């Protein structure tokens, strides 16, 4: 049995690392053996943040450099990430799940099916409620769209229910989940979906 | 199509920068050298030429030829020898990382490759894909030159069009450098400026090295 590989993409600062930080305790509680790969644009800031967070042993967090191309390293040439995931599976037999965080990119970034079994796209409410209407490939093609920072909606003049409706509509009804990753809201729903769709347990 | 075109088409396919091998994320010292002024973005051909002469020709070319020529235990021994010929730990790890990325890609298209150092894995991969040794060497040298040029473009230090002049100017030199090594040649590079650039810590870096 090999580990499920799950991609987490989305624009810069939308809350990808925050989502990982929020979901790790849920995964641990469910007994799902997890490791993480980060694709920081510069150095390995996110990897260091996750290691410092202490929710996973530091050696279960690998950083892959993206050569100034966060897109390329998850789509056109995902081999560095594939090799890192293969290495994690070799080093940690029995691993159930590998989360792969993309470097922050634009609405066009998508994950190669060579690299992941399932991927989610994380957007930020404060980026504006017109983002789903812009129909970027990330928003349309992701297996799950996460609309994070729902807590900020009243502060940035966003009609959250409308934004979620439009997201559902452009995605033809495929899953959309609103979250506040900083306060662990909505994150359990992501875990449920992963268990159903990719972990099968 | 004439059957004669097949070797050229195979080489073009395997040399194409869109072939997934992870190499786009390596600058082999150029990122630090550009940041610190040792490499001149207006004379990229100078830096690339020095890398081809000082690193590719005496090291990668020889290591790759061993990977192309050897099998089984001989190949594993050769990879160990290449490993022992890279004294700097970081560089050694990065060569293994690049080798693992290419091997991961090759295995997924049905070419059975073990992990190893980048030039050794590349040599074996190109032979198993049907290239002659001279063609394999040309693919490798061109890959290094183009990889460095593309890193400079993505670092924003040269134009994507302007850099083609540097690459075109280098082609005759690349052709002259791709002579197959003798079987008893050993890999040993002399590229002190880029060796130092490879070891320099850089506060923020975009590339693996
Ligand atoms: N208000 C609010 N802030 C959040 C939430 N989730 C994340 N943030 C904040 O948003 C900022 C960016 O979060 P990150 O998790 O670093 O975002 P990222 O997508 O990983 O960023 P990059 O990796 O740099 O692209 C941080 O300051 C977080 O604290 C949320 O649900 N609500
Ligand atoms: Mg992050």
What can you see in these coordinates?
- Chain A: It is found in: Cytoplasm.
- Chain A: Homodimer. UreD, UreF and UreG form a complex that acts as a GTP-hydrolysis-dependent molecular chaperone, activating the urease apoprotein by helping to assemble the nickel containing metallocenter of UreC. The UreE protein probably delivers the nickel.
- Chain A: Keywords: Chaperone, Cytoplasm, GTP-binding, Nickel insertion, Nucleotide-binding.
- Chain A: Pfam families: cobW (PF02492).
- Chain A: Facilitates the functional incorporation of the urease nickel metallocenter. This process requires GTP hydrolysis, probably effectuated by UreG.
- The complex is a heterodimer of chains A (201) and B (209).
- Chain A has a single domain, classed as 3-Layer(aba) Sandwich (Rossmann fold), CATH 3.40.50.
- Chain A contains six helices and seven strands, in the order E-H-E-H-E-H-E-E-H-E-H-E-H.
- In chain A, helix 1 packs across helix 6.
- Chain A starts with a strand and ends with a helix.
- The model of chain A has no long low-confidence stretch (mean pLDDT 95).
- Chain B is mainly alpha-helical.
- Chain B has one domain: Urease accessory protein UreF (Orthogonal Bundle).
- Chain B contains nine helices and no strands.
- The longest helix of chain B is centred in the first third of the chain and has 26 residues.
- Chain B is globular, with a radius of gyration of 16 Å.
- In chain B, 47% of the residues are buried.
- The mean pLDDT of chain B is 94.
- The chains are: A alpha/beta (201), B mainly alpha (209).
- At the A-B interface, helix 3 of A face helix 5 of B.
- Guanosine-5'-triphosphate binds next to helix 1 of chain A.
Briefly, what is this?
Chain A is an alpha/beta fold and 201 residues long. Helices cover 32% and strands 17% of the residues of chain A.
């Amino acid at each position: 049995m090999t580990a499920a590989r799950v991609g987490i993409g989305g624009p810069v600062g939308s809350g990808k690392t925050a989502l990982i930080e929020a979901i790790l305790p849920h995964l641990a509680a469910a007994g799902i053996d997890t490791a993480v790969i980060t694709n920081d644009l510069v150095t390995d800031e996110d990897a260091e943040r996750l290691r410092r967070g202490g929710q996973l042993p530091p050696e279960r967090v690998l950083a892959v450099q993206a050569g100034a191309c966060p897109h390329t390293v998850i789509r056109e040439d995902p081999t560095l990430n594939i090799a890192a995931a293969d290495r994690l599976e070799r080093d940690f037999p029995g691993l159930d799940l590998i989360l792969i965080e993309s470097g922050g990119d634009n609405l066009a970034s998508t994950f190669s099916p060579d690299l992941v079994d399932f991927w989610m796209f994380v957007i930020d409410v404060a980026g504006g409620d017109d983002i789903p209407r812009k129909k970027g490939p990330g928003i349309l093609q992701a297996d799950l769209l996460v609309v994070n920072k729902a807590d900020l909606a009243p502060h940035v003049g966003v009609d959250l229910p409308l934004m979620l409706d439009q997201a559902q509509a452009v995605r033809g009804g495929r899953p959309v989940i609103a979250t506040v990753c900083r306060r662990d809201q909505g994150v359990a729903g992501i875990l449920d979906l992963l268990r159903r769709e990719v972990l099968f347990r | 199509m004439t059957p004669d075109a097949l070797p050229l088409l195979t080489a073009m396919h395997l040399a194409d920068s869109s072939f997934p091998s992870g190499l786009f994320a390596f600058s082999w010292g150029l990122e630090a050298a550009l940041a610190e002024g040792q490499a001149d973005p207006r004379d990229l051909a100078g830096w690339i030429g020095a890398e081809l002469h000082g690193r590719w020709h005496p090291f990668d070319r020889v290591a790759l030829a061993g990977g192309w020529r050897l099998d089984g235990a001989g190949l594993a021994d050769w990879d160990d020898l290449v490993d022992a010929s890279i004294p700097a730990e970081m560089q050694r790890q990065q060569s293994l990382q690049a080798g693992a990325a290419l091997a991961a890609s090759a295995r997924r298209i049905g070419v059975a490759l073990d992990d190893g150092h980048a030039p050794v894995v590349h040599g074996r991969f190109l032979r198993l894909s049907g290239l002659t040794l001279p063609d394999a060497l040309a693919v490798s040298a061109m890959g290094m030159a183009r990889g460095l040029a593309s890193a400079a473009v993505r670092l924003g230090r040269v134009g994507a069009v302007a850099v083609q002049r540097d690459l075109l100017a280098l082609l005759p030199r690349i052709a002259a450098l791709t002579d197959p090594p003798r079987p008893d040649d050993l890999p040993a590079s002399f590229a002190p400026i880029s060796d130092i650039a490879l070891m320099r810590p850089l506060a923020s870096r975009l590339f693996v090295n």
